[in-house]
Automatic annotation (TrEMBL):
Molybdopterin oxidoreductase domain location: 121-493
Source organism (scientific name): Cryobacterium algoritolerans
Name of this chain's protein: FdhF/YdeP family oxidoreductase
Region annotated Disordered, chain positions: 1-20
Lineage of producing organism: Bacteria, Bacillati, Actinomycetota, Actinomycetes, Micrococcales
Residues in Molybdopterin dinucleotide-binding domain copies: 649-755
UniProt keyword annotation of Oxidoreductase present: yes
Family as reported in the entry's similarity comment: Belongs to the prokaryotic molybdopterin-containing oxidoreductase family.
Cofactor entry: [4Fe-4S] cluster; Mo-bis(molybdopterin guanine dinucleotide)
Gene Ontology cellular component annotations, sorted alphabetically: membrane
Length: 785
């Protein structure tokens, strides 16, 4: 292993390069872009053992996104983004013991997220005592004892919160929630609270299950796939294979997005000769460049057209049999949509009537329709209601519970869905709690716990004093960065189980602990031999994942080991669980999962089947809807447009091509033509002119939320970009500074990261320089609010 800290160059934002956005995604450049750094960082052997084992049946599950694997695997079952994630994790560079004495926490806090992540893998537990500015290495026994002592000293279990990020395996997640509930709280915030929480509620309340109602094969079998609020070319790259397959089978694709994302337009499949040399496959047949937050209006307008078509030709348009047998609420929906104001729709969407008509015609022509979506839909104030509108549109023509059709939220983290199945949720239903209590002979707490936003609020109020994280980087991922950091610093004790350094290790409680763990790529050997873990992808397929390379250090413990030891030290005999046994043999954990988690019966046997198994899903398998009436519910939802005062813009925060959430791999957003920098705000050319700005100039970006707190991103460069008028985009996590903690989606409490009102002003840095530097900024923009 490489025991020295590499020299890491921070980005020089003044070197920003901008070129035209790309028209196509993937192809050979995608693969070479990933393989060169892989070999450079890991050498040929480690690259071969990791990248080539990725997504193979005897290998490990790609730790990046939650896109599923095909039944028949090729030799290369990965994409550029998967290779980057693996290179970042399996790098042999480790943080040496001396690092901690050389860098104070204050020094580390001045570094960028990129710099922190590039220091290499964490290998030993380190502890920062209260009042000190340095971490120092301690033993595992000391670290475990410290957590147990602090937890057992709290006045109430609800003074602690236990976060989970979606890379954690099913086995670790199951033990973690047992530990937390055994300790006595449901404060189990997770990354899903900031991600697909709106999908869970929108689907749960209408069709009784918050998961996709499609299988992998349905994509290729669909007549029409409508992709909403999603950038698959970067965030789910191998999804493009299935979109291509759908086209090849005669299906069509519609993309609804404010940005003309490369992966929505044209795809060069790196596995095919045509993809290497030719022009690739034309993807979207129709591209609707919608305004931010306009989807709910669009969906209502399309459903209204479907109902109008039925009124013109009674009995021929709706799926009457399905609606009569399986659904309720049709009359209410009809009544509600009859009132729809088309002018309001045009304003909210920014689209032309003909574009909406065309989409409705495409929908009516298709027998099998899938609608997919991701963060462009869920991270909106009306996210839950918008998802209910997706369900409305699908139900009208029976597009749920038949092959080639369905609702498909596309999950983010590779196992975020599995973690929820295992009980990582602050509001698990009573039936789960009953089964858990019975299995382990204890009384689980019944009161709902705090989600991610609520956890920060309770830290602000001094009610949550202890924080433990199983992966992730909550301080950087949650909204209102400054407030979140202050809240975290107000706590007494924070501990992070992590593989690499990040912002959450340097914005800590008074005492802080880092517990390094093994990644999914690494071979996990315990007393009874080699262990595997299991995960669930976005289409409910559960399968095994086997590490394939030597762990970067022998001091590392697996997540299962760390949690078992923490639980044993903290709980003693409070729950009837063989914590020591779990660590030695993960089959024992899976035996418990079989008995507690519905759908996971005979888990050990089924997980060993070729390719794993698919969890049951009522709507998908048998049109069974676990709602109070047993029927799927068509819902009437009131429109609410995003209001934009004059002189402001609606900002969305999104991912570049060189990052995984808060992990920054590099400074290029290749498909969008933005290179060597991240401090940019993408704005429509006409808005740039109207606001009196110049393409390429620096601005300060101010949040307009009126709660007395100043929110600003300084020295951002304006980049002219084909986004709709009035809409802008900037990269997350940096832009989280602008998202207010209280700006959350109705009904899911998810931060509204895709519609923040901002105002651009001349940069403060320029005001102190020559007057000439601000000359290009017009009064309309410069005027203070
Ligand atoms: N390489 C890579 N892969 C990842 C991740 C990563 O960071 N890097 N993150 C993972 C995670 S956790 C997640 S949740 C997923 C996220 O996957 P995405 O949801 O694709 O991620 P975002 O970058 O947030 O992109 C949001 C998309 O929605 C569009 N959009 C924004 N607002 C609206 C709107 O109002 N309406 C419509 N119709 N579109 C809108 C944006 O223009 C953009 O194309 O990706 C996962 N995969
Ligand atoms: N403004 C804005 N904010 C957002 C979003 C947005 O679009 N805009 N997106 C939201 C979404 S969709 C999500 S999912 C959240 C993401 O929130 P998180 O899941 O909290 O963040 P990540 O950046 O994925 O976490 C990365 C860290 O996880 C640790 N890690 C990586 N692999 C492992 C592992 O195998 N085990 C352990 N124990 N640790 C590991 C590493 O130390 C790494 O630094 O952010 C949300 N925040
Ligand atoms: S599509 Fe997602 S899961 Fe598949 S290899 Fe790429 S990053 Fe990994
Ligand atoms: Mo996510």
């Amino acid at each position: 292993m490489v025991n020295k800290n590499p020299k890491v160059e921070e980005a020089d934002e003044s070197e920003l390069e901008v070129s035209k956005p790309k028209e196509w995604a993937a192809g050979i450049p995608g693969v070479t872009h990933s393989m060169v750094p892989a070999i450079e960082h890991m050498g040929v052997n480690r690259t071969r053992r990791t990248v080539l084992a990725m997504n193979q049946k005897d290998g490990f599950d790609c730790p990046s996104c939650a896109w599923p694997d095909p039944h028949h695997r090729k030799a290369f079952e990965f994409c550029e983004e998967g290779a980057k994630a693996v290179t970042w994790e399996a790098t042999p560079v480790v943080i040496a013991s001396e690092f901690w004495a050389e860098h104070s926490v204050s020094d580390l806090r001045s570094r960028s997220e990129y710099w922190l992540g590039m220091q290499g893998r964490l290998t030993e537990p380190v502890y920062k005592p209260a009042g000190e500015d340095y971490y120092r290495p301690i033993t595992w026994d000391e670290a475990i004892e410290l957590v147990a002592t602090r937890l057992n000293a709290l006045g109430s279990p609800d003074e602690a919160a236990f976060y989970t990020s979606g890379r954690t395996s099913n086995e670790a997640a199951f033990l973690y929630q047992l530990f937390v509930r055994g300790y006595g709280t449901n404060n189990l915030p997770d990354c899903s609270n900031m991600c697909h929480e709106s999908s869970g509620w929108g689907m749960g309340q209408t069709i009784g299950v918050g998961k996709a109602t499609v299988t992998f094969d349905d994509f290729a079998a669909a007549d029409l796939i409508i992709l909403m609020g999603q950038n698959p070319g970067t965030n789910h790259p191998r999804m493009l294979n299935e979109l291509e397959a759908c086209k090849r089978n005669g299906g069509s694709l519609v993309a609804v997005n404010p940005l003309p994302e490369a992966g929505l337009k044209r795809y060069k499949n790196p596995q095919k000769v045509r993809g290497v040399a030719g022009k690739g496959t034309e993807l979207a047949d129709q591209f609707l460049q919608i305004r931010l937050g306009g989807d709910m209006a669009l969906l209502q307008a399309v459903s209204k057209r479907v109902l109008d078509a039925e009124a013109r030709n009674p009995g021929t348009v709706l799926d009457h049999k399905f609606l009569a047998e399986h659904c309720e609420g049709l009359e209410e929906l009809k009544e509600h949509l009859a009132q729809l104001d088309e002018q309001e729709v045009l304003e909210a969407t920014g689209l032309r009537i003909e574009e909406i008509d065309e989409l409705a015609e495409r929908y009516l022509k298709a027998d099998k329709v899938i609608i997919t979506w991701a963060m462009g839909i869920t991270q909106q104030k009306k996210g839950v209601a918008t998802i209910k509108e997706i369900i409305n549109l699908l139900l009208l023509r029976g597009n749920i519970g038949k092959p080639g059709a369905g609702a498909s939220p596309i999950r983010g983290h590779s196992n975020v869905q599995g973690d929820r199945t295992m009980g990582i949720w602050e509001q698990m239903p009573p039936a789960f709690m009953d089964a858990l209590g019975k299995e382990f002979d204890f009384e689980p707490p019944r009161e709902h716990g705090a989600d991610a936003v609520e956890t920060i609020r309770r830290m602000q109020e001094g009610k949550i004093k202890f924080f433990l994280a199983l992966g992730g980087n909550l301080v950087a991922a949650i909204s209102d960065t400054d407030a979140a950091e202050a809240a975290m610093e107000k706590t007494d004790f924070t501990a992070q189980i992590s593989i690499k350094l990040n912002r959450s290790h340097v914005s800590t409680g008074k005492e802080a602990l880092i517990l390094p763990t093994m990644g999914r790529t690494e071979i996990d050997i315990q007393e009874t031999g080699k262990q595997f873990v299991s995960v669930e992808d976005t289409v409910c397929a559960v399968h095994a994942s086997w590490g394939r390379v030597e762990p970067v250090a022998h001091t590392l413990l697996s997540e299962v080991s760390i949690i078992s030891r923490l639980a044993k030290a903290t709980l003693g005999n409070k729950v009837n669980a063989d914590w020591g046994g779990f660590e030695k043999n993960y089959d024992l954990i899976r035996d418990h999962i079989s008995r507690v988690v519905t759908g996971c019966e005979n888990y050990n046997e089924r997980i060993r089947q070729d390719g794993g198994f698919i969890l049951e899903n009522g709507p998908r398998d048998s049109r069974t809807f676990h709602t109070p009436t047993g029927k799927a519910v068509l819902t009437a939802n009131d429109l609410e447009a995003v209001e934009r005062p004059t002189g402001t813009l609606i900002l969305q925060t999104l991912r570049s091509h060189d990052q995984f959430n808060t992990t920054i791999y590099g400074f290029n957003d290749r498909y969008r033509g933005i290179k060597k920098g991240r401090h940019v705000i993408m704005v429509n050319a006409e808005d740039i002119t109207e606001l009196g700005l110049a393409d390429g100039q620096l601005v300060d970006v101010y949040g307009e939320y009126k709660d007395g707190r100043e929110r600003v991103l300084r020295d951002y460069r304006v980049v002219s970009y084909p986004t709709p008028r009035g809409c802008a985009a900037a990269y997350y996590p940096e832009a989280n500074v602008l998202v207010p903690l209280d700006h959350v989606a109705d009904g899911s409490n998810t931060p509204v990261s895709k519609a923040v009102i901002v105002r651009l002003r001349p940069p403060r840095s320029a005001e102190t320089e020559t007057a000439g530097a601000t000359a290009t900024v017009g009064a309309g923009v410069a005027a203070p609010a």
